[in-house]
Structures are given as C-alpha cells and as structure tokens.
Sequence to fold (155 residues):
Amino acid sequence: MTWLIAFSQDIHNAFGKVVQLFKTNLPSAQKAPAQMGAASDIGNMTTTSQDILVLLLPNLSVADSEALFALTLTPEVLTCKDNGVQKRGYKILAKLVESAKLTIDAEAILRKLDDLTEGITAAAKKVLFVCLFLPCHKLYSFNFQGSFHFTFLID
Fold:
C-alpha cells in the first residue's frame, strides 16, 4: 500500500514538472514554423512534453486528468501554429475521454471545438475527427465552418 501511495505521488510530481515544461515552451511554439528556424528545439520540447504527458496519462489521478483536459482544451494548444502541438492536443483529449476518468459535457466541448476549427491545420483535422466521438447519448449535428459536416449518435 505504501508503494502505491509513493507511486501515485511520484506520478503527480512528474506530471507537474512536465506540465510546467509544456507551459514554458508553448508560447514559443505559437510562432509560425517558418519563423521558428533555430528555435525549432523549443517546438521539439513542446511536443516532447506532450508525448510524455500521453505516457503518464493512464496513471494520472482524476484531478490531474481534469487539469490536463482543461489545459489542452484551449486555443493556445488546439490552434497552435505548430501542427504537432495541435495533433498531440487532440490525441490527449481523445485519450482522456477514453480513460473514462472525466465527467464531461459533450455538447459544450463539441461547441468549443467548433469555435476553434478555423485555426486547425490540415494534419490535425484527422485527429479532430477521432475526438468528435465523445461519449454521449444524444444525436448531434455540426457544420464545422463549412469545411465538413457530421451527424452522429453515440450510445
């Protein structure tokens, strides 16, 4: 039992450090990739921190999962100029929803995603498609800024 508590605390501490690394480097990743040039290491640090967060995800507490969901569901992440940050952001959202640790308002989240579609890169749109299938029990119909239209029922 003591080992499990220590393990949970270690995961929480590692999560905090990786989130801080991500937040520190995210503003630099907001610059257009053509402008980044020598700063591409910053973009790599941003996406690398997201990759580490994906690895930590199965072991996160509910509170840490909620914090990561809130951090990821922001325009800074989901419309970042670096498409790697965008794609990983949508991947994190999908994995958090799949983990069933969170109680979410699917309709509100889909509306927020709809508001962010103008800034999504083509590469991230495929990943967004996976995120659209959030668990819910209603029929939804959305027209995403005229670029694509979905109607789906999830049970």
DSSP finds eight helices and two strands in the chain. Confidence is low (pLDDT under 50) at residues 134-155. The first strand starts at residue 139 and ends at 144. The CA atoms of residues 62 and 101 lie 6 Å apart.
